[in-house]
Amino acid sequence: MRAVVQRISQGKVVVNEQVSGAINKGLLVFLGVTGEDTAKDAKYMAEKIVNLRIFEDENEKMNLSVIDTEGEILAVSQFTLFGDCRRGRRPSFTEAAPPEMADELYEIFIDECRKLGVNVETGVFQTHMMVHSINDGPVTILIDSKKIF
After folding, report:
1. pTM for this structure?
2. How many other C-beta atoms lie within 10 A of the C-beta of residue 125?
3. In a 3-state reduction of DSSP, which class is residue 8?
4. Which domains can be identified in the chain, with CATH numbers?
């Protein structure tokens, strides 16, 4: 499982001209699922992301988590995080999980974040989404449940 995590001051997802999820201060999480992922990966990613210390404390050091700041998470499923561009010009998505599996693990991730005390808003799985965000910093972190980077 992979995530691109961005610290934002505001974000929303629009599907068919309707807002499906919106947050103020918090994290925009683009989440990709591979065919090898399990519920264990989803739980690991939730715990890692909600405790990631990328918000500034009173000394302007990145020392606070989204929980510490009472921030929110905007979670967006994104299979293209497993796009392989090493050969040719068209990405291969063979590593991405089938939709049913990806949706199940995406939902586990969301549930785990909520269990850890964070309000989570979402996009709509397997639809064309317009994602709006105001990056804060900017701060962008890449996380992989297999710890390959």
Report:
1. 0.97
2. 14
3. strand
4. 2-143 (3.50.80.10)
Structure tokens at 142: 């890449």
| Relative orientation angle of helices 39-50 and 99-115, to the nearest 10 degrees | 40
Rounded to the nearest 10 degrees, how much is the dihedral formed by the CA atoms of 69, 71, 76, 77?
50
- Tell me whether residue 78 is one of the annotated catalytic residues: yes
Q: Contact, 33 vs 142, CB < 8 A? A: no
Q: Where are the alpha helices (DSSP H) in the chain?
A: 39-50, 99-115
- The DSSP code for 49 is H
- pLDDT tens profile 65-93: 999 999 999 999 999 999 999 999 999 99
Catalytic residue among 55, 78, 82, 122: 78
Rounded to an integer, what is the distance from CA 81 to the centroid of its chain?
A: 11
Is there a catalytic annotation at residue 126?
Answer: no
- Give the count of beta carbons closer than 10 Å to the beta carbon of residue 18: 8
The vertex-75 CA angle with 115 and 39, nearest 5°, equals 55
Q: Is 82 a catalytic residue?
A: no
**Residue among 38, 80, 94, 127 flagged as catalytic:** 80
Q: What is the pLDDT of residues 87-113, one digit of tens each?
A: 999 999 999 999 999 999 999 999 999
